[in-house]
Design brief:
The chain is mainly alpha-helical and 259 residues long. It is built from 11 helices and 2 strands; from the N terminus they run ααααααααββααα. Helix 1 (6-25) packs antiparallel against helix 3 (57-78). The chain crosses the membrane at residues 50-71, 83-104, 172-192, 204-225, 231-251.
Length: 259
């Protein structure tokens, strides 16, 4: 596992250096993260830079552990250039797919916002928060006040709250190497499906193909049925897997370097 190959070592080093820069420079590095399309902070090059940033020590630890655990064997199979290409394609592709999902989610949020502005009722207010920010404190009380006293001042305050949540959503970026990492997991399971793995949270060996399939199912469920407070970009993980699978099927046609 710790016999690091050149590309894996360089990716690891870049991620660690960027993480250190994040700790030293703080918010000055935030423009490297991937903001939603339509945000004032969005830049096209963020599809590349976001994958070298992380939200905390445990975030980078798990991603880099997966990289050094599964990456070297793939690099030895493909060579450094192809491995690096695969890593970047999966990372960028995951960012693109996640941005598409996020654009759809924000469009639906905007529709709900406009519905409230057209009909500023307590029901529409509560529905907006129940759907998009159920963990927010006090929204039920605000909905009750709006129902009992729909004065212009209370309507204006409720509208400001709804607009604030919508506008704030455009300033929540996505960051991390997880999309690329999940592409690596897909590639490992595809090439070495019957390799048995010992995972920290499973007390018995499990074949790589079952581990990846189970992980994909878990991410899909978590993405579709998101629980309040969950900030994990589940669809970026699934995007990395999907892009990785597509690339693998394309490369499989040239078996000279694939196997």
């Amino acid at each position: 596992m710790f016999n690091l190959t050149p590309a894996v070592r360089n990716i690891l080093l870049i991620n660690v250096l960027v993480f250190v820069a994040q700790q030293v420079l703080g918010d000055q590095t935030i423009m490297l993260a991937l903001f939603p399309v339509g945000s004032p902070n969005y830049q096209p090059w963020q599809f590349l830079t976001y994958m070298f940033m992380h939200g905390g020590f445990m975030h980078i630890l798990f991603n880099m552990f997966a990289l050094i655990s599964f990456g070297p064997l793939l690099e030895m199979q493909w060579g450094a250039n192809r491995f690096l290409t695969f890593w970047l394609i999966c990372g960028v592709g995951a960012g693109v797919l996640y941005s598409g999902v996020r654009y759809y989610e924000l469009d639906k949020m905007n529709q709900a916002r406009m519905e409230f502005r057209q009909d500023p009722s307590s029901g529409n207010y509560a529905d907006f928060f129940r759907t998009y920010l159920p963990e927010a404190e006090g929204y039920r009380e605000n909905a009750r006040i709006l129902q009992e006293s729909p004065t212009p001042a209370n309507i204006a305050q409720a509208t400001e709250n709804v607009d604030g949540i919508y506008n704030q959503s455009f300033n929540v970026p996505m960051l991390g190497a997880s999309g690329a990492v999940f592409g690596i997991l897909m590639a490992f399971a595809y090439l070495f499906p019957n390799t048995e793995l010992m995972l920290l949270f499973i007390p018995f060996p499990i074949k790589a193909k079952y581990m990846v399939f189970g992980y994909a199912a878990f991410e899909l469920i978590q993405g579709v049925y998101r629980v309040p407070g969950d900030t994990v970009a589940h669809f970026a993980h699934l995007g990395g897997m999907l892009i990785g699978f597509i690339v693998l099927k394309i490369w499989e046609r040239s078996r000279g370097q694939f196997y």
